[in-house]
TrEMBL record:
Domain of life per record: Bacteria
UniProt xrefs under Gene3D superfamilies: Butyryl-CoA Dehydrogenase, subunit A, domain 2
InterPro entries according to UniProt: Acyl-CoA_Oxase/DH_mid-dom_sf, AcylCo_DH-like_C, AcylCoA_DH/oxidase_NM_dom_sf
Protein name: Acyl-CoA dehydrogenase
Length: 299
């Protein structure tokens, strides 16, 4: 798997998209593992050989890991693979010096998955329960304080998640394309879905190329834009794919409904209007309109 920012970010994102196209739960766990390995590489740290990793960083509804007296405490939500993984990079609020990443052995008895905290309509098999940390020793710190969000690769990983969304959307379209037949209305839906897929794919490819061309540059706006495009794609798929499929395909296809449910849950890692507002604020703060930037890049 190519590391991001090392010359083949586009290839990395294509692999993530391919996993998403096959199975979104698989892709969710694979994305977390590969993101963890990328973080460790960026910090100059080696992973534990043979270990399956995740990245657990959520701070939702007042929860989140805290680092006190050299140990990790607190509850972290959305810990995908909680019962399956060997290790996790846990992002814990530091003691006055910024967040810290801690490489945690999940076999430690002080790491406790909270049963009954993951009951979604989609992505159920991702096992993304809450996890309690009851004084787990922070024996393996990764990077300096503030490293998790301060490193260039933070948003490179965010682009990788968008690639998985793209793949999940493509998988749904794979399932419904045969239902179009010769009906002009269904063909119109298929044409719109194809266009949305191609546009998001092209934007992610261009963003990956820009990252590799200048890894030290700030690519936040570009990645946020690609993530917004992928989220819009998923909403388009959720709207048009069922209309293309019709009741017969929806009720008799062995996995279409599950794919749609998985995609609807997973894409909510994008925070909808909140993330769009943050993107809009960045665009408004620049001297050049987004359309001018695109045309200059084209020249």
């Amino acid at each position: 798997m190519p590391l991001p920012g090392r010359g083949d970010t586009a290839g990395r994102w294509r692999a993530l998209a391919a996993w998403g196209r096959t199975d979104l739960v698989l892709a969710r766990l694979a994305e977390g593992h590969t993101d963890a390995l990328a973080i460790l590489a960026e910090a100059g740290c080696a992973p534990v050989p043979g270990a399956l990793y995740g990245v657990w960083a959520a701070r939702s509804g007042g929860t989140g890991a805290e680092l006190h007296d050299g140990a990790v405490h607190g509850t972290v939500r959305f810990c995908s693979g909680a019962h399956l993984l060997d290790r996790a990079l846990v992002v814990a609020a530091g003691e006055g010096a910024g967040d810290r990443i801690v490489d945690v052995d999940l076999r430690d008895p002080r790491v406790r998955p909270v049963e009954g905290t993951w009951n979604p309509a989609g992505m159920a098999a991702s096992d993304s329960v809450d996890v309690e940390f009851a004084g787990v020793p922070a024996e393996v710190p990764v990077g300096p304080p503030g490293f998790y969000t301060g490193r260039p690769g933070f948003w490179w990983g965010g682009g990788g998640v968008a690639a998985v969304w793209l793949g999940g959307a493509a998988g749904v379209v794979d399932d419904v394309r045969g239902a179009a037949g010769t009906d002009p209305h269904r063909l119109a839906h298929l044409g719109a879905l194809h266009t949305a897929l191609a546009a998001t794919d092209a934007l992610l490819a261009r963003t990956a190329q820009a990252i590799d061309a200048d890894p030290a540059a700030d690519h936040t706006t570009a990645v946020w834009t690609a993530r917004a495009a992928a989220e819009q794609l998923c909403r388009t798929v959720g709207d048009r794919a069922p209309r293309l499929a019709g009741a017969t395909v929806l009720s008799r296809h062995d996995r279409l409904g599950a794919r749609l449910a998985d995609l609807g849950v997973y894409v909510r890692q994008h925070h909808a209007e909140r993330d769009l507002a943050a993107l809009g604020a960045r665009v408004a703060a620049t001297d050049t309109a987004a359309t001018d930037t695109v045309s200059e890049e084209a020249r």
